[in-house]
Structure formats: structure tokens, C-alpha cells
Amino acid sequence: MFIAFERILSAMKPDSYHESSAYWRMLISLTIFAYTLGTCIGYTIYIAGHHILGVIIYNVIDISTLVINTFGIRYCKARYLQLYGNGSLNARYQVYEAYEMAKAMHPVYWISFCLKGIAIIIAYVYFLLMDFFNGSLYALMDFGYFTAHAFNCAFSSAVLMYLHKSLRKSTLTLLGLKKLTYLNKYRTRNCAWPEHYRDDKDK
Hints:
Shape: elongated
Largest sheet: none
Strand content: under 5%
Distance between the termini: 38 Å
Oligomer: single chain
Order of helices and strands: HHHHHHHH
Number of helices: 8
């Protein structure tokens, strides 16, 4: 959710945002807040015993993330078009990168939301029927719950690296597969916006 929010902020003042100390202060503050929020939710669920409340908070965060990122995609695209012909090359590039990240993250959020839904269903079943479960059944559900979360993290990360062009390029370079032909075909099909990076004097 905070990544989606940060993309919107970066598109508001692209010329100065990434070069100012406010950028790092924002990232550090959001990171601390995210870890604090996760700790509080974990305490609510696993220590305080407010299981349903904790699961509901998780659901609200996921839905809010999808809404914020949807707005972020539209805002970044509109902001890029607004800057075209008016803003500097660097500003347009920063907004375009924000748009690309928001666009790549959107299917990742949906995939993550659906995969976490499996874990959430397991959690709801357990919390509602926990008085009827024995140790073996609890261990099985616990295994399914954490397996779903682990698979969600790995699969969502892989999808993001595939969908985002810069991340995909870096990943292929790291793996020694940079010259794959499908990558070149993908760049050819998706080169409309990058052509706009050139200043008017370069056209």
C-alpha cells in the first residue's frame, strides 16, 4: 500500500522529489510504519487473541492497496501527458518510471490478493472452528497457511520481475539471459512511450 502511495507522491514533483532528502525521509518513515503496523497486527492476532479483527485489518489493507494503486496508475499517466512538451526530460522520465512500476505492480497486487485469500480462508475456518480441532488438524492447517504465504511472496516477486521492464532486464542480465529474443520483441511492441523521452530539440 505504501509503495503505491509513494509512486503517486513521486509523480507530483518529479524534478525535485528523487533528489531531495524528503525522498529518503519518506521511504524510511513508511518502512518503519509498515513494520510497526505488521508488528501490531501480529500482536493482535497471535498474542492478544483478537483473530477475526486482525484478519479483517489485513483484508482492509489489501483492498486499500488495490484502490490506491488503481488511482496511482491513472494519476501517473495523466501527469506524464501533462508534462509532455512542458516538463524536463528528467521529470518525464521519473513520472514514466512511476507509471511503469504502478502498472507492473497492479497484477501483482491482484495475484497476491487472491493467493492470500487462500490463507485468509484457512485462518477464518480455524478461528471460527478452533474449539473442534485436534493437534493434527491444527498442524495441517498451520502448514497450509504458511505455505500459501511463502508461495505468494515468491510467485508475486517473480511476476513483478517479469512485468516490469527494468527489473526484467536486470534479472536477465544477472542470469546471463539478456539476449533472449522474446525480450527484444517485447521492447519493440512497447516502445511508444519511451519515444516521448526525447526533448523537442532532439526530434
